[in-house]
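Pipeline run #58 for the internal structure catalog. This entry was flagged by the ingest filter as a single-chain record with no existing model, so it goes straight to prediction. Upstream metadata was stripped on purpose; only the residue string is passed forward. Reviewer on rotation: M.T. Logging verbosity set to normal.
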Amino acid sequence: MSVTSHFYLLSPPGFKFYRGDIYFAGGGDFAVAEAAALLANRWGIPASVDTQALPLFYKLELDGSLDVDGALTDERAGAMRVESELGWTYMLRHTAQALAKAADVDELTSRRRAAIFIQEWGGLEAFGPQAVTRLEGQLRAVDMKLKYLKPHAFIGVIALRHVAGELHRAGMLHPPDMPVLLERLNAPTPPQPLSLPQVRPIGVHRPLVARNAHRTEGEQKWTESVRDDVATWLDQRDEHVVAEVSRFKIYKPRQAELLLHRIRAPEASIDGVKVADVYQQLPAAVWIGRVVPLDSEPASTLIRRLVCSIDFGPDSATYPIVLCPNWLRLLQWRAHEDAPGVYIDVSGGAVARVVWWRDAGPVDIDDESIWGEGCYVTLNKAGLAQFTATCGNAVINVFATREVQKPREYGEKFFEAARNSYSI
């Protein structure tokens, strides 16, 4: 199959081939158009956009309030009970504001234009409370609890993408604004690379359970063992784990769930009650076609938590971390082109790895089972030497919690936390 036929299968309506090139002839969805352009570029196929004059609607001077009466909205589902032009994008107001600012148009105009699209596609009947009820009924029919996109929220994003498409074809959106707009429109382009989980690393041990102890005594011993979880990391295979976010869950059928969470990073704040709290205090980076830090300073933690508008569910880590891009620039490190997660220095030698791992034990309906996952960052001797030469002796802070969860009628719950700091 030729490259041309490959693209034909993937191209959306409104995209045409012209003399071997790809010609974007009015594909309405801005995100789809940008994704198609990216794909064409990667395949080495010239691509062009069909420029069109801005529809007359955008030139109208509209008056009205930008607020929406909350009484018109269903409290449980969030869908509108009564048709309201601005109600469709009320939950997406910040996105609509960013789009209007980038294109230098009025927010009211862009949101009303989005409402016109939605009304053409079916309006309240297709995407209102009845649509939510229909969808929930279909999900109940399979007797499963599943996450789903609420129709009114989903269609609001799609409508704003079509508004962005009109503005883009009119030449009113500029390249520097594209990545942020695509992120806000729930379609970061290029998409975040899909990583595959690796095996549990040597040195990250499965937690042990006191099997010969009485149930309550065993649960107490389980939580008290949290002190062992914050021990100083011992080098394994010429690698030193300088940062990690890990969790384990041991499920004891009809008894309890034993939970272990741990986080470690240079200079990390470990004053929280839960590991999730400490994770949220890490400096952030966002995926907008690439990893972009939210400030210009090298993170004292070396790592950043990664934020993305797309929820990959089980196909991504629960607590994803990345090396701070500002540190990569300072140390002159870069990602290896052919080895995902591996970083090399100016000489081309490997210095660091970022790994997402998973681990699990036997699972049977009546048997005890264990499950774990996490992300970690390792530096080899060369990487550690370059890092400490720049920042000095780094202090690694570790915070871990162990918890026993069970129904109230099944007995007492237990929770313990531990902290530690050590130099590298």
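catalog note: The chain has a mean pLDDT of 84.
catalog note: The first helix runs from residue 3 to 10.
status: ready for reviewer M.T.
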